[in-house]
Design a protein that fits this description.
mainly alpha; 2 helices
């Protein structure tokens, strides 16, 4: 769809995602925006699974606490 320029260089892996995308695409600000949007989508998708796992661990902790005293 050509919404973002193609990568023209390899950015150092230690850079934060949006900055690395910006530099890798030759200074295309849309690459940084796309990277931020993808991070937000990832957080939204993973959050329910994180909460389920956290709830499971909390229940295990409460069960151990009830057994121990």
């Amino acid at each position: 769809m050509h919404l973002v320029n193609c990568a023209v260089t390899i950015a150092p892996w230690t850079l934060p995602g949006p900055i690395g995308a910006y530099l890798a695409c030759g200074g295309d600000w849309r690459a940084a925006v796309l990277n931020i949007i993808l991070i937000v989508i990832s957080v939204v998708l993973y959050y329910p699974f994180f909460k389920m796992y956290d709830k499971e661990l909390l229940e295990e902790e409460k069960a151990k606490e009830a057994i121990e005293g």
